[in-house]
Fold this sequence. Notes:
The protein has 335 residues and is of the alpha/beta class. 59% of the residues lie in helices and 11% in strands. It contains 13 helices and seven strands. It has helices at 43-53, 71-79, 89-98, 106-120, 131-157, 164-194, 196-206, 213-222, 231-238, 261-277, 279-290, 295-316, 322-334; strands at residues 11-17, 21-28, 35-40, 58-64, 84-87, 246-247, 250-251. A five-stranded mixed beta sheet has the order 3-2-1-4-5. Helix 2 (71-79) links the parallel strand 4 and strand 5 (84-87). The N and C termini lie far apart (72 Å).
Amino acid sequence: MNSSASVVSPAFVGIDVSKDRLDVCVRVGDRQPGESFAVANDVAGVKQLIERLAGLPVQLAVLEATGRYERRAAADLLAAGIAVAVVNPRQVRDFARAQNRLAKNDRLDAALLAQFAQVIAPRARQPQKDAAQRDGLEQLLARRRQVIEMLTMEINRQKQLDQKLVARQLKKTIRLLDQQREDLDRQIAQLIEENDDWRGTSAIVQSVPGVGPATAAALIATLPELGKLSRQEIASLAGLAPFTRDSGQYRGRRMIFGGRGAVRQALYMAAVVARRFNPALKLFADRLEQAGKPFKVMITACMRKLLTMLNAMVKTGQMWNAQVKQSRSVTCQMA
């Protein structure tokens, strides 16, 4: 009789997320299709899921990003010590199409996610000590964006109004929305002030001309990797690293794609302001314009440069130094 210990195959978990339910597939080794079950997408359901996974050698659990519904499950699984990756749904669908798997339902999607976890092995999230606070900050920032959008629409509706009642209602709505924006700004500032790490990051980021409190808060909430990655990695994560489009002798236009839209949205307005008032970025943008680059190309390059600049400053804990930044830009221009 062979006394050698048997090798335990790692388990890979795929979780298809919907508003009310989590469809789960546990794939052990190459066994197909794997064990499938479903739990409610609430506190009790996620607890039940963790209990069922507790006795398994789970190497990775994969969920698709839905915007909100996956957050509780991902956070609780991480807190339970289970490696979790939240992936772009487009990647998973491309993975399915590559296998000519066109059928789609919740159970099949969970099995596909389990296979995706095993074959592709996406990078797992790092546990964050302030995950709950960051989630609250993200909610406040999302609501602030919604309020600003509604405020802009109501202000635009004021134009060319003849009906006095409509005009009065619009003014009341604008005052209400403006008050809500101010309340949200105060709450966001208070959350950042109460967290030592966030307060320090915010101070460093806002020391750069062109970067204000809203941009700093957006970066803290949506880019916790700031200051922890290389400049190439942080640009790629934000979706600001251009992709090549070459084939044979053909040289296509470089384009950006994917990444975190909320980060780019925050950096766009900051880059527009910094283009005028930040000496280092103004010099960089002027050089691109003189080379005949279109505005979109120029402003995207400014966003990428601003992000890498902020990443280096947060990594080293240094505030903005105009003389140093300008001298570096001039050196790069002469090189």
